[in-house]
Amino acid sequence: MPPLRDATVTLPDGRRLAYTEWGLPDGEPVLGFHGTPGTRLWCPDEAATTAAGVRLIMPDRPGIGRSDPLAPRSLADWPKDVERLADALGLSAFGVIGISAGGSHAAACAALIPGRLRGAALVACRALSEYNWAERPTAREEWSPEERAEFDLAQVDPIAAADLTVQHAADWIEQLDEHPEIMQKQLETAADGDRWFFEDPSRVATFEATMRDWRRQGVEAIKWELIEVFLPWGFRLADISIPVTIWFGSQDHRIKHMDFQAKAIPQSSVFVWPDSGHLGVAKHWSEILEAVV
Length: 293
What we know:
By secondary structure, the protein is of the alpha/beta class. It has twelve helices and eight strands. It has a single domain (5-292), classed as Alpha/Beta hydrolase fold, catalytic domain (Rossmann fold), CATH 3.40.50.1820. A hairpin with a 5-residue loop joins strand 1 (5-10) and strand 2 (16-23). The radius of gyration is 18 Å and the shape is globular.
């Protein structure tokens, strides 16, 4: 199913920010932040979005899909773009949902622009625990040698670190371009509860299309997306002053240290889906929307 709208806004610095809209044009506004790889082109459940009375706005982050790059950039830059997008759309307040890698960006909004938010949800986001080197210093011990090299270089030369990250990810990105079904195999193998998602050919086609669109501008455009967790975040989970819901599937074996997120965020509630893995967001989308609006 195509989105209600696929458009761009021009930000004050001249960059274009692309976004799609799903659900009801006059519904409760919620901004959804895609994972990696991913773009604005994927809505976890179109029917549930409409049934919840939600106007879902899914923006591409800089350098991804049809949004112009921003280099260099950090996680703390994203809430600024979110506010500008909301202003352009006439939204005074809205909810945010961060899916997987998008969870870090939703957390940044919760910490840095809480006055604009009606609710915030962090869904299957491993980065907030596994790469939160400022609040969980032992995190670095769990990284791969490549990740530690990227982090160490990022502390002295962020531009070189971004280039190194692209080099390390080049083979994976190329394989994903040629064989997007790789992601399907990984997700199905990891969690029996996610197999249902790939039973619908049209759903699979949309899922693969959003992955292809992720790097339509080339790897140079997405390198800051890949390195930003190793740069200063510009906020702490402990700084978040509004209630936040944390969601993940118990079959998602990539998710670790979720208890850290719950303890670090002062007003957090944790919801665990026993029947899902990383794609529990699609099976339980209506629950997440209800919590946010």
